[in-house]
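Our preliminary data section would be incomplete without showing what the modeling component actually yields. Below, a chain of 290 amino acids is followed by its predicted structure, encoded as tokens that our downstream tools consume directly.
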Amino acid sequence: MHTSTTFVRHMERTKVILKYLTLLAMTAIVIVPMIPVFFGSFKTNTEFYESSVWALPASFFNLENYRIAFTQGNMLLGFANTLLIMVVSITVSVFIGAMTAYVLDRFTFKGKGIVTNLYLFAALIPTITLNIAIFSLMTWISRTMGIQLINTRWAAIILFAGTDIITVYIFMQFLKHIPVALDESAIMDGASYYRVFFQIILPLMKPAITTVIILKFVAIYNDFYIPMLYMPAENLAVISTALDNFRGPFGSQWEVICAGQMITIIPILVIFIALQKYIYQGLVLGAVKE
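Predicted structure:
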């Protein structure tokens, strides 16, 4: 009996050790590649090429690379365009996603299963395979309706505002924690479905809305392909394409490129660390059936 108990304790201890070793390994995979970039952003051009990538810079107060990257690399314009696209597209996506989830969760109608399955099917299709069709559609709309979409912010806004299955799933899981009795009581008091949704349901969905905003923020901030394809003009550069412009005038100044990378990494890193608990809370909503 004693031997069996000791064996179980050893197994539990081994599981804990393996868990933390795995977490440390995953952390190292993420952080280690960033260290040479961080060091290189403070080095001079000569120092960058003559020293090891792991060598510490002569001074961590050398901010000249950051000044060049920010002022000459259109970083400020990139942040402004990115923020504008984010605000509009995330706002539209949240409203469409919340309303879609509300209808799919609260109402029973013919074809409900088909609609839900279509969302799931769309999630399985690699987005990259649809780009030719989407670009052709955007071009056709611009040509036939006289609405200029290509080379404007509207193209990116429309594509980013599209509600994905993750957004709908998060809202649907959260709605399971809101009693249907609230809807029924409000309707009995004479409230319309629109009033129920906007005045009762939507305010209660703030945790899920926060999660969706964070996830969409990270996705839009990191996206490179859509801005590059639909907004190639220099004055429409977002933070990802502004960083890509460093390949030209700063092609041989890797220390400036490192500084530009740090400028783009720091804001999203700070926001993610500060708000990560909301992401995890939103993703596990409804994971356990009460």
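Residues 286-290 have pLDDT under 50 and may be disordered. The radius of gyration is 24 Å. Preliminary results of this kind motivate Aim 1 of the renewal.
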